Amino acid sequence: MLILIHPPVTKPCEPPAGIAKLCGALDHHGIGHRVLDANLEGLLSLLNASPIPSDTWTSRAFHHLSKHLASLSCWEAYRDNDRYRRAIKDLNRVLEVSARPGRIRLGLANYEHEELSPVRSGDLVRAAESPESNPFYSYFKGRLAKLLESEQPSVIGFSLNYLSQALCTFAMIGFLKQECPGVRLVLGGGLVTSWMKRPHWKNPFKGLVDHLVAGPGESALLSLMGVMRPGDNHYSPNYDSLPLRDYFAPGPILPYSSSSGCYWNRCSFCPERAEENPYITVPAEEVIVDLHRLVDKQQPVLIHLVDNAISPSVMKSISEHPPGVPWYGFARNTRHLTDPDFCLALRRSGCVMLKLGLESGDQTVLDSLQKGINLQEASSALKNLKKAGIATYVYLLFGTPPEDLIEARNTLEFVVKHHDGIGFLNLAIFNMPIDGPKTRQMETKSFYEGDLSLYANFDHPKGWSRPLIRQFLDKEFKRHPAIASILRRDPPVFTSNHAPFFVMNKGTER
Ligand code: SF4
């Protein structure tokens, strides 16, 4: 028996895609397993524990807790922006107060310890040495003990994808090491993959974790469970062991990936490229079969395509064989979107939102980053998508090496000019990945946070430093009335994961 754990803290709005894929592979080979969404359960257990109300806000937030949770599980909150914001703010408040004595800043998608850093291996080991200091301890102590007793697992696997999960993952690992030293512990997921692809990687978790897995974990896990030569087959995800209807959403969201890696794979400074993750696809016809079967079985309200970039051929196949429920995901700003008929067909197939990594509104910056984006095409894509009724969630990246204030202002101008076609905006400041072809050409300094940091410090070649960028964003970019009104639409905490619910026809869309 194998137990797979999705550790806290990450947005509790949909089941973990990676674990659903592992379940598909294990089912296919008839290997018994249980899944524990410790993120969802842990957050709910903290929310439902009575806090010691320290102030009026906390008492009020706790008083409205069940109403807030209920409103996020149906369409009510998504029909009323103010109500939604109040619910998220209050839930975050209860979490924040409940974890404060442990010197932790906790939220629905956040876990920050005042002293321990998730990018210092020594701090992760410390978290494992004192699991009782973790705010989820009283939840996982009982829950894991019961599972160990009822399932008698031989292997327990953790899927660690975000930094906000790292300290809790190691606290749970520490607890298991004390309770059941004979059970083999496996650690995989996106964050672990990135760590293991760092140059000169050396495993700092020997003695704590028995197996570390880089990349898709199906094959490694199957081998561990005794499957001979499992190969790299595509296994359709299985959500049966996950509490699909308990997430913070008006109905089940099904995450599905039609590929791993990226078909473009050329953008300089892209972690996918730096890590040399191969591009592996599920054949388009299998994607369609999977989606139809999963929709029939699970009756989701939304499909989340979690690919780094959905390929135009998969988009075309979905247009020709609509899954029957709304869907959204990341797409590249390609020529295909300049065809109004292509966009209309996407909309007819249920596409409610596309996330687009535009990064910059300056052509020289885009060219230098090898984004393969032409601004005229991006402009026409935004107009076509708007006309077709597909919302856009546009990602911008400030402070890349070829950018300066002049180019950043061109981005501002582009956004203002196209504000009508931009539903939501994500603004980020560039971090230099520690490795990669372009990074090697730059003057970088020591890792600025810890031995597991994925980014290096660097002096911007044009002096466009982080304080200057922040100043530009706060004093100029965000203050433009057209941009401010886009930013106000962004769902707090859940951002793009909940954004589709604000543009869908509130529960009537099929
Ligand atoms: S499109 Fe996205 S995932 Fe693909 S190479 Fe560019 S930044 Fe990376």
Topology:
Blueprint: E1 2-6, H1 17-28, E2 33-37, H2 38-48, H3 56-63, H4 65-72, H5 81-99, E3 104-107, E4 110-113, H6 121-129, H7 137-151, E5 155-159, H8 163-179, E6 184-188, H9 190-196, E7 211-212, H10 218-224, E8 253-256, E9 259-260, H11 271-274, E10 280-281, H12 284-298, E11 302-310, H13 312-320, E12 327-331, H14 340-348, E13 351-359, H15 363-368, H16 375-388, E14 391-398, H17 405-417, E15 424-429, E16 432-433, E17 444-447, E18 455-458, H18 466-477, H19 481-489, H20 495-503
Helix pairs in contact: 1-10, 3-5, 4-5, 6-8, 7-8, 12-13, 13-14, 14-16
The structure holds iron/sulfur cluster (SF4).
Iron/sulfur cluster is lined by residues 262, 264-267, 270, 272-273, 308-309, 332, 357.
Fraction of residues in β-strands: 15-25%
**What Rg, in angstroms, do the CA atoms define?**
23 Å
Extended strand count: 18
Our measurement of the CA-to-CA distance between the termini, rounded to an integer number of angstroms, reads 38 Å
The unique ligands bound to this protein are:
iron/sulfur cluster
- Provide the low-confidence segments as ranges: none
Average of pLDDT: 93
Q: Number of helix segments? A: 20
Largest β sheet strand count, sense and barrel closure: 6 strands, parallel
Task: Name the shape in a single word.
Answer: globular
Structural class designation: alpha/beta
Helix content: 40-55%
Strand order of the largest sheet: 8-11-12-13-14-15
